[in-house]
């Protein structure tokens, strides 16, 4: 097992390592250092952490250049204005973090680090990169710099699996981005595209995911600090997920903006979206654009604060899975059963429904139905669901089933499961 010793700032500008037999991990973070201390290479460590200091230049030979085994170097949150070319001598370096500095360029020597797989240079002032590709790079964070285009060297680095371009002034994505065949996640704010209504075809057909974050405190009239809305889109598989860390959307003044961002995003990928996950977003109504998603097969809006389900259902003819559990719903559209002919799974549990629409009995393909604690005990319609295979109920609903339709459900081979409140009470909002 790797030995680990945390070395703090000692004796002026030196690290006093004489009383340590061996160590592989040097941590000099948060020590108010202005220069790189000498003697860092005494025991040839694997990791050196120098983050959150006041270091202006690096490296300074010999403090680090003798570290032939060094694999991890963290220089983040310093005052570096440049990296020296000698960094290429760290031939075993795999992880380099120079984020939150004052860098305006990256030396060609970084491209000679054959083992480098993780490079974080976010929050600097870099406008362009050398044209040479990275030999083995897999994870690259260029966020919050001064790039106006995607660097050519990045488009040549086919080993990249994660690329973060957020916080730059990149208004278009090059067609050559399709060359990044190993890319899994692209962090890019599609709102920066010059024409949001015409997302490039290449963007819709690549298998990687696109992610971006909207800061609530940047929005007009917002009283929220630190709250964010995070979007994840995987265009090729038609997947959209939205996450928020704010519990009071309406109170922090971002609800209208959230609706706007949702509608804009849905509009961008309208012709490809097949699955939308808006669970736990504290939304009060569904985006209007949702009704135009003709290819949508799965919709999860559970754990929100919907008092009704106002969506225009006729546009969702392909919808197969619908989850509106724990949404404070008091009513379902009367036409829900008539307008969702492809529905195979429906979860309306944990709501405040007073009654269920008669049209629920008109769902010809419904196989899974969750009713537990939905607010009412109507179960007669279950006998009309010829494809029903599983139904989840609470105790009161089970008693009603035993009275009116247990024989029919048994004959059809339907499994009736009793769900106790304690099984999910910890999930209540």
UniProtKB/TrEMBL annotation:
This is Protein scribble homolog. It comes from the Eukaryota. One of its GO terms (cellular component) is cytoplasm. Keywords: Leucine-rich repeat, Repeat. The keyword Repeat applies. PROSITE patterns: LRR. The gene is LOC109484371. Pfam families: LRR_1 (PF00560), LRR_8 (PF13855).
């Amino acid at each position: 097992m790797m030995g680990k010793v945390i070395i703090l700032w000692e004796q002026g500008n030196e690290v006093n390592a004489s009383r340590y037999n061996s160590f592989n991990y040097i941590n000099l973070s948060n020590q108010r250092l202005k220069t790189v201390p000498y003697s860092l290479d005494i025991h040839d460590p694997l990791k050196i952490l120098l983050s959150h200091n006041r270091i202006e230049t690096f490296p300074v030979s010999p403090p680090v250049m003798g570290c032939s085994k060094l694999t991890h170097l963290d220089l983040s949150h310093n005052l570096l204005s440049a990296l020296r070319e000698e960094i290429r001598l760290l031939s075993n370096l795999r992880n380099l973090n120079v984020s939150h500095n004052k860098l305006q360029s990256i030396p060609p020597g970084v491209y000679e680090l054959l083992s480098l797989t993780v490079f974080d240079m976010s929050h600097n002032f870099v406008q362009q990169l050398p044209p040479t590709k990275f030999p083995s790079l897999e994870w690259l964070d260029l966020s919050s710099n001064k790039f106006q285009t995607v660097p050519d060297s990045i488009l040549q680095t086919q080993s990249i699996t994660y690329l973060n371009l957020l916080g730059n002034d990149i208004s278009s994505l090059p067609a050559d981005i399709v060359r990044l065949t190993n890319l899994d996640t692209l962090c890019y704010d599609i709102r920066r595209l010059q024409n949001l209504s015409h997302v490039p075809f290449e963007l819709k057909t690549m298998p990687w995911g696109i992610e971006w974050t909207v800061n609530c405190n940047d929005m007009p009239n917002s009283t929220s600090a630190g709250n964010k809305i995070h979007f994840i889109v995987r265009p090729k598989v038609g997947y959209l997920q939205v996450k928020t860390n704010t519990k009071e959307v309406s109170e922090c003044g971002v609800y209208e903006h959230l609706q706007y961002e949702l509608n804009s995003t849905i509009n961008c990928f309208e012709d490809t979206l097949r699955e939308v996950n808006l669970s736990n977003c504290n939304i009060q109504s569904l985006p209007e654009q949702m009704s135009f998603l003709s290819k949508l097969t799965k919709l999860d809006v559970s754990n929100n604060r919907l008092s009704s389900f106002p969506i225009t259902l006729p546009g969702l003819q392909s919808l197969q899975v619908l989850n509106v559990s724990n949404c404070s719903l008091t009513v379902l559209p009367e036409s829900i059963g008539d307008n969702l002919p492809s529905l195979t799974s429906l979860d309306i549990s944990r709501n405040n429904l007073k009654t269920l629409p008669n049209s629920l009995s008109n769902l010809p393909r419904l196989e899974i139905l969750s009713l537990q604690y939905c607010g009412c005990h109507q179960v007669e319609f279950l006998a009309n669901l010829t494809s029903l295979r599983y139904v989840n109920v609470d105790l009161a609903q089970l008693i009603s089933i035993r009275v009116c339709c247990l024989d029919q459900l048994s004959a059809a081979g339907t499994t009736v499961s009793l769900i106790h409140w304690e099984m999910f009470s910890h999930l209540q909002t």
